[in-house]
């Protein structure tokens, strides 16, 4: 009723009331303007640059003077074998990360939450968070050293008798997907527990006390109390993960990819980087990026619809 009454007011009167309210709160309102200006300059103005996906753009052209070619760049994409190879690699690595890397932070968070020793819990959390704060340059250098013929992994496998001859593991393209997936989990699993631990900290302890009185085991309490209370944040993380299936980690790829494993290591982001920055085909790279963005939005919408069905038609977005 109140909303309809407000809508019946003339536009001039509503605008006058808005300006009066804005004048009363100008100190608070002014705090948001730097963020709005930043977003407009760096998020909305660059959208105009997407037009070069439909042009033949070179470094000697401007966006306005570059000739239009319509959907020619997209036609080239559809017949580009190397692009589709990067799509296969991206989806293969991303689905492995989704299947394994999405579940591990949940399990790790529950394990940390169940620890009764406060000091030991803090030590475990610190150790699990630490890799997140190291760049892929540092972690990539560590992996390159460990996987070399004289590195830690080869020496360990030789000592255990699992291999008879040392080999550089990063030069084997068939092993790259697993290296990318497991190293990414190692880096981000601990950091991914933060949201889950925050949600679990808000669960009413009386739920667990009542479950204990009823004779529920610890696993039963986790299944019937902990996980249901984490349902919304799990759904949100799932939506964001699914929408990013085509956005494999560029930093990781550039560090770990080499001429020997490129066939399995090249992902869409590195392919776009190579075509745009290395070969100077900006129009083609922009067209690929635009196509990936459109597909990512579609995945976001679909994932949101699916998770809302699983959450009694309650959307988390």
From TrEMBL:
Keywords: Cell membrane, Membrane, Transmembrane, Transmembrane helix, Transport. Signal peptide: none annotated. The chain crosses the membrane at residues 32-54, 91-113, 133-156, 176-201, 222-246, 282-303. GO terms for biological process: transmembrane transport. It holds the Pfam family BPD_transp_1. It is a multi-pass membrane protein. Residues 87-303 form the ABC transmembrane type-1 domain. Its main location: membrane. It is found in: Cell membrane. PROSITE patterns: ABC_TM1. One of its GO terms (cellular component) is plasma membrane. Belongs to the binding-protein-dependent transport system permease family. This is ABC transporter permease. It comes from Paenibacillus apis.
């Amino acid at each position: 009723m109140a909303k309809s009454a407000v809508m019946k007011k003339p536009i001039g009167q509503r605008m006058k009331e808005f300006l009066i309210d804005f004048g009363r709160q100008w100190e608070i309102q002014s705090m948001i303007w730097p963020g709005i200006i930043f977003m407009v300059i760096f998020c909305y103005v660059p959208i105009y640059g997407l037009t070069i996906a439909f042009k033949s753009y070179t470094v000697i052209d401007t966006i306005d003077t570059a000739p239009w070619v319509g959907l020619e760049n997209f036609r080239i994409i559809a017949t580009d074998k190397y692009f589709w190879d990067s799509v296969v690699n991206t989806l293969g690595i991303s689905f492995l990360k989704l299947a394994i890397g999405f579940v591990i932070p949940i399990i790790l968070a529950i394990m940390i939450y169940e620890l009764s020793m406060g000091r030991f819990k803090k030590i475990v959390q610190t150790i699990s968070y630490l890799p997140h704060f190291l760049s892929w340059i540092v972690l990539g250098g560590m992996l390159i050293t460990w996987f070399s013929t004289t590195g830690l992994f080869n020496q360990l496998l030789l000592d255990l008798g699992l291999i008879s001859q040392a080999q550089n593991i990063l030069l084997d393209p068939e092993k790259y997907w697993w290296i990318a997936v497991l190293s990414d989990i190692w880096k981000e699993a601990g950091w991914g527990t933060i949201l889950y631990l925050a949600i679990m900290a808000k669960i009413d302890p009386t739920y667990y006390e009542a479950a204990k009185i009823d004779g529920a085991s610890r696993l039963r309490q986790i299944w019937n109390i902990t996980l249901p209370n984490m349902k919304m944040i799990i759904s949100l993380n799932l939506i964001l993960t699914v929408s990013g299936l085509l956005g494999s980690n560029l930093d990781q790829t550039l560090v770990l990819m080499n001429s020997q494993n490129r066939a399995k290591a090249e992902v869409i982001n590195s392919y776009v980087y190579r075509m745009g920055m290395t070969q100077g085909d900006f129009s083609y790279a922009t067209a690929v990026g635009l196509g990936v963005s459109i597909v990512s939005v579609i995945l976001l919408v679909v994932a949101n619809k699916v998770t809302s069905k699983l959450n009694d038609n309650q959307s988390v977005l």
